[in-house]
Amino acid sequence: MPTRFFPAFACPHFTNERLYVHQIRALPATDDCKMFVCPKQSLMAAMAKEILANTPECFTLIEQSLGSYTAFEVIRSALSRLKHLESTSKAID
After folding, report:
1. Strands 82-87 and 59-63
2. CA–CA distances in Å: residue 93 to residues 26, 63, 68
3. Would you state the pLDDT for residue 30?
4. Percent of the chain with pLDDT over 90
5. What residues in the chain have per-residue pLDDT under 50?
6. Closest Cα to residue 10, out of 84, 68, 56, 59?
7. Are 20 and 35 in contact (CB under 8 A)?
8. Can you tell me whether residue 33 is helix, strand or coil?
9. Rg (Cα) of the chain, in Å, rounded?
10. What would the pLDDT profile of 79-88 be if each residue is shown by its tens digit?
11. Rounded Cα gap, residues 1 and 12, in angstroms
């Protein structure tokens, strides 16, 4: 299953493959893992549109922090294309 990672935007020094390097290595090579960073976009809807334009018809989206807002736009725009959504943003007690 193609897997796309969408990080938090508030961490510009981590918005590359380093953030998810361990997760990407743990997934099978057949999962076609890629990291999305949309530096040219300032609106969540535009980011979601860019993600959808550059992903296969069916994919898994793994998001973190501010990336979750964009994930909501992906869900709103193309729920049928999203096979699985995973959030890496967890509350700390």
Report:
1. parallel
2. 27, 21, 20
3. 85
4. 16
5. 92-93
6. 68
7. yes
8. strand
9. 12
10. 999 998 888 7
11. 27
The pair of structure tokens assigned to 16 is 């590359």
Question: Mean pLDDT over all residues of the chain?
Answer: 81
Contact 61, 4 (CB under 8 A): yes
DSSP H stretches of helix in the chain = 21-26, 44-53, 67-78
Give residue for tokens 């493959």.
Answer: 17
Whole-angstrom distance, CA of residue 25 vs CA of residue 78: 28
Tell me the one-letter amino acid at 35. Answer: M
Q: Which residues contact 26 (CB under 8 A, 6 or more apart)?
A: none
Q: Which long-range contacts link 56-59 to residues 24+ away (Cβ below 8 Å)?
A: 56/2, 56/32, 57/81, 58/1, 58/2, 58/82, 58/83, 59/1, 59/2, 59/3, 59/4, 59/83
Look at the block and give the residue holding tokens 């193609």. 2
**Count of residues making up the chain:** 93
